[in-house]
Amino acid sequence: MRRLWLALGLCALAWPALAEPLRLDDRAAVDAWPAVAVLADPQGAYSVGQLAVQPQRFEAPKGTASNLGRRDATLWLHVPVVVPGTHEVRRVLEIDYPSLNQVDLYVVRDGEVRSRHRMGNSLTLTERALPTRALAAPLHLQPGRHELLLRVQTLSSVVLPITIRTPEAFTQHESQVQLVQGITLGLALCMLLYSLVHWVSLRDAVLLDYALLMLGNTVFGLSYFGIGGQHLWPDAPNLSMQIAPMGVMLTMMTGTRFTRATLAIHQVNPTIDW
What mean pLDDT do residues 36-62 have? Predict the structure, then answer.
């Protein structure tokens, strides 16, 4: 019997210690990453029902906070939260990385799934939990402990800046981001128009390359920051996943031509220019 208890104790020590649950008090925003635990699921073998009652399978993430790098496997995230007091709270879970393809959020209490929300740029805007720029889902939580389970599938890097905000704080944050993105987009469009007008009048290929460089950067920004998927192509999720790499390729191609011409590399070293 003593050996049995010793073996059980060693197994318990071998399990990774789970983080303390997030306390959803009166703070406007709470960073969820300190409480995140991760589980890779390369074969897609786990179900939400299994993981809801087996949190010991998860382990603390390693490396840079909110960035798990490039992963081919499906990932599960576990975020425990506690609602103090005696009243229901309303929050918004935000993942401010719109390039993720699909994220399923499950709210679990007492081992049972109470709600499910879908997010990601592989969905149309109306299919998402909230029709917003960032990936976001509403949370209606009763007092007590809850487990948030997120299933992440994406072809891009797994970047997960997760914040739980009050609805008012989320609206304010999104409004500020939209304002900054609008100003940036307006400046980019002005530079694009300026370059095109001068190219038409001067017929200088350098100006056309610069205009295409600005176009590639603008298209990439629209996709990367989620503005395009929200306002320009809300019903075309395939475009959201394809337009960002197309913008990068256009930027690289025209950027190389623009640099060669402006630095006159062919005059300095024809071999390097080639």
Answer: 90
